[in-house]
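Go through the following before class.
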Amino acid sequence: IKHEHFIPAIDATLKEAKEEVDVIINNPEEATFQNTIVALEVAGEKLERVTSVLFNLNSAETDDEIQAITREVSPKLSEFSNYISLNEKLFEKVKAVYAQKESLNLITEDLQLLEKKFIGFVRGGANLEGDAKKRYAEIVTELSQLSLQFGENILAETNSYQLLVTDPDDLAGLPDSEREAAAQTAKSKGKEGWLFTLHGPSFVGFMKYADSRKLREEMFRAYTSRGFQQNDKNNVEIIRKTVNLKLEKAKLLGFKNHAEYVLAERMAENPQRVNDFANQLHTASRPVAEKELAEVQEFAKKHGLQDQLQRWDWSYYSEKLKNANYGFDEQQVKPYFQLEKVREGIDRKSTRLNSSH
């Protein structure tokens, strides 16, 4: 799959998906579970397959071109989503089937699908009218764009930060595997030394093992300030707009706030239950957390930390304490989980299973 394939594929499958939805809308027969709910469930399957590849790539292995493609297709996808959820004729058909749910004798799974579709339409603004419906569509589109921009800003800041270590003394505490990975990263960038980044494998390993407290602090501050620096990648205004738009969307649908809107479909059902549970969890867990904090602080103090334990110290001293208390060293376990060894284990298990059959 090449970058240039995405837009033609999405345009083609969007057109096909819309035609599939139109067949449901324009079907002159009485709405049934099969010709409306099931048909709607399978409509757009090809589109979903194509977009899942694009958005997974955008999350895990993106570049400028993929981001540009994602920005271009997102409004189209939002428009298609609104075409379904705000379509009055389509909602009337779904509502007609839903009104018969007690007499349809559906199995549990089919009944859940019917309820999911009906509630999805209601939460998607199907009951709105006039200006409210138009505004809802605008909000959905804008939220989609803001979400993309937020993620792009975080990713850009993640990619732009590099900690190049040239003094071997600054590598103290880091296992050979972490040093080798950093050396390879530096080489791939045409640099001499060891290069550490804010990407998970590099950042987590550095914070857990690097003896240099100064460099751990630098890495931690760089990581936690992504999207919140005084530059064109600052997400503060995006967050403000997103919060306000989600509140407006929730109120359009008859909820007091976004939390009520989200929780209406969840087991907790309302914000009060969430707050009550959080308070119970806090009461139950705080003594244990305080004990753990005291243990790590005491351990750090015994091993030379003169200052107050900071957030950039936590992974480092927690790992050392775990090793001291339980003799567990993650680095000693790693060789058993190399990709080749895991594959060999899976192959052997598959062979035994096949033989037993």
Q: What stands out?
A: The radius of gyration is 27 Å. The chain has a mean pLDDT of 92. Residues 271-302 form the longest helix (32 residues).
